[in-house]
Amino acid sequence: MTLDVSRGTDIAIVGATGKTGRAVAAALDGVAVVRRLSRSAPDYPVDLETGAGLAEAFTGCRGVYFIAPNVNPDEPALLVRALNAAASAGVDHVVYHSVAWPYSPRMPHHMDKARCEEELRAFSSERGLHWTILQPCAYAQNFEAVLDGTAADLAVPYSLDTTFSFISLDDVAEVAARVLIEGPELHHAATYELGGPEALSVRDVVRLVEVATGRVVASRSSSVDEWMKLHNDSMSADEQHRLGAMFEFYDDRDFLAGSAVTATLLGREPTPVRALIS
Ligand SMILES: NC(=O)c1ccc[n+]([C@@H]2O[C@H](COP(=O)([O-])OP(=O)(O)OC[C@H]3O[C@@H](n4cnc5c(N)ncnc54)[C@H](OP(=O)(O)O)[C@@H]3O)[C@@H](O)[C@H]2O)c1
To answer: Domain holding 186: CATH number?
Structure first.
């Protein structure tokens, strides 16, 4: 991919120091000038709660990739604050990192992403900003420790038999980079749902790892309460509620998304989970 530099070279990633942001930054490295934004980012410290730093960080950028903090109770307000700063700074194209199935009334953080999508479209009508939305399904890398052998056991607070269209985070990042580099001429007003190549349950993933490596992975389904007791140290009550609702949804519903759009935007087949096992 080559960059048409007539619109500038710099792309800002909001949330660049997190799991998703690091992958998107890596995919853009060497193609565009990447500005990494977050509260802890050394060059572009910003706070989405107050707007501090956003105007300076966005000035001179051709595009912005917006990744919201995980299960934040205020995601639409954070996005609108960033959109105002981006439009005032003259940014032309905002790409919003949403999720597959945003309109899922049983999952409050998905519903907030549906609201964000609507805010983005409304903002674009009023202020002329160009937009694109990516809707990834669950990342295969959520199970990275099992895939790379760091963990020998796995407890998830939902059924081991629920199936997901796990997508490689690196494929999501490659699509994000393409959309940002090609820009609004090709991708304005597009919403791309991104699924991986096959529907797999956690039990299937564990079996793939065991067959490929000979390692034994002890997997089980725990209760949401048990999981929360182990992981709730730094989580607010609202964050716990949002995650708990997601786990309850996963316990009795599959979470699937097709892979044809992913393949088209990658220009190749999406990466299967078995290729991520080491
Ligand atoms: N995991 C999946 O399978 C999946 C699938 C689809 C969509 N998603 C979505 O992807 C998004 C990102 O997930 P992730 O796992 O990459 O999250 P993450 O690793 O927790 O990263 C969050 C990023 O946001 C920054 N941040 C947090 N609060 C901030 C604030 N007030 N102002 C500015 N920056 C702030 C963090 O850096 P600092 O703390 O330094 O500020 C960090 O860079 C979430 O919205 C999630 O719903 C995830």
So the answer is: 3.40.50.720
